[in-house]
Known about the structure:
Order of helices and strands: EEEEHEEEE
Shape: globular
Structural class: mainly beta
Strand content: over 45%
CATH architecture: Beta Barrel
Distance between the termini: 36 Å
CATH superfamily: Nucleic acid-binding proteins
Number of helices: 1
CATH class: Mainly Beta
Amino acid sequence: MFNKVILVGRLCTDPKMKYTPxxxxxxxxxxxxxxxxxxxxxxxxxxxIDIVVWRQSxxxxxxxxxxxxxxxxxxxxxxxxxxGTDGQTxxxxxxxxxxxxxxxxxxxxxxxxxxxxxxIADPIMDSPIEAIGDYDMPDDITDPFADx
Length: 148
């Protein structure tokens, strides 16, 4: 079996971080991902995908990633099912992120920046979460979605 998802998109809202009763950090956010082709009307469609990130990675996202930022998400697809308050069974699909990377520069100068060697490893997944700030980003890189 193989379950791997890699997405590049922009955050639709700021991440929302919570803590489980046992004190584990979890953050949720949604990214907008353009489809690579146009529909029959010549328009590009966008998918809005829910992302979940845990532990130190959630704290990183909550601190350094904001609405509008371009991110790369590497993780797995998860489908959850639960009973609603009305008794109906509900389902949702979301991506549980193993790795989050920022791909652009913050729009505001007051956005906190991690140190150059800042890396968070998820102890469960053993996947690094790296912060890429403007000190790492070459000046000649352009946003592939800017003209869309």
